[in-house]
Amino acid sequence: MKVDEELVQKNNALEKEVQLRPGTAERVRNLEFDHDAQEQYTRKFNIEVHGTPECEGENLADIIIKIGQKISVNITTQDIDIVHRLRKKTPTTKTHHRQIHFLQKETRILPS
Predict the structure, then answer these.
(1) Residues 97, 49: one domain?
(2) pLDDT tens, residue order, the chain (112 aa)
């Protein structure tokens, strides 16, 4: 019981230390909103491709170009800024997700 009471007292003391000064909570909300808006803006040039197998020595840009051809979207290497492999969700997953950042937003949405 004594340990529980000590923990409650320490917890209360920490909560008092953590209390925000007036106006800080609103400022944090505004910063979070601005950060979210900025992230959304930078992602407008991105697409994710799911379910492509991983091959050693693969050229990710070439894979994306071939996928584009299959769905009648003309993609060239000049359209692609960068392609990333995203982490596997589980160690047993044999496919990767890829995130493609295009140089122009129109490339990611307009079929040829």
Answers:
(1) yes
(2) 577 888 888 888 877 766 656 677 788 889 999 999 998 888 787 888 877 777 788 888 888 888 888 888 888 888 888 888 877 666 666 666 767 777 666 655 545 4
Q: What's the rounded Cα separation, in Å, for the pair 70 and 112?
A: 12
Domain match, 52 and 100 both: yes
The domain in which residue 63 lies consists of 45-109
| 77/41 Cα distance (integer angstroms) | 23
Altogether, the residues listed in the chain come to a count of: 112
Same domain, yes or no, for 50 and 26? no
